[in-house]
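User: Some background: our group keeps a shared notebook of sequences we're curious about, and every so often someone picks one and asks for a predicted structure to add to the entry. Today it's my turn. The entry only has the sequence so far, pasted here. Could you supply the structure so I can complete it?
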Amino acid sequence: MVAVGCGLLTRLPAPFAGSASPPHRPLTMAEARVSNAAVPIVADAGAPAKPFRFRGGVASREQATECLATAALYEAGGDREGQRAVIQVILNRVRARGFPKTVCGVVYQGSGRITGCQFSFTCDGSLTRRPEHDGWTQARRAARRALDGHVYAPVGIATHYHTDWMVPYWRPSLDKVAQVKSHIFYRRRTRS
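Assistant: Of course. Here's the predicted structure to add to the notebook entry:
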């Protein structure tokens, strides 16, 4: 599993300041988990996203379903809740400013570059090793339901996430709103 925005911090966050470790080294998985756990979920995580209603033809809908299911499977494996959370983030991005306005556009944004892809499976060679297992049926079902308006409420309007064993460079600029197993979800900061 890989996550959105896979830039690791190269310097240690505050909980590790003053340690005997060099100041500019990647965090270990254990250090990243401790650092991520120290960031609280915002008190006002917000309401769930509004239902997404796909508006397109049969072929466009099938393409959107496949893009959602592929992202869900590569990002969350066979984890049902993780798949649903990933799908919700993608649909939240479709409606958010600064992202493509189609499902497949969001999933494959930046995939033509070695760095800068939004979902690392689209540019790290993972697609050449397409998984073949039962998770496909589940991911496609979740994708179809989401395109019909089903909302995965626990992640609200999150537009970013990562696994708990990494700390992306963008983490301090967003509000942490949820954690679903090993994935941590963020939304843009709300202005007070």
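Suggested note for the entry: The chain is about 30% helix and 10% strand. Helices lie at 29-37, 58-76, 80-95, 103-107, 135-147.
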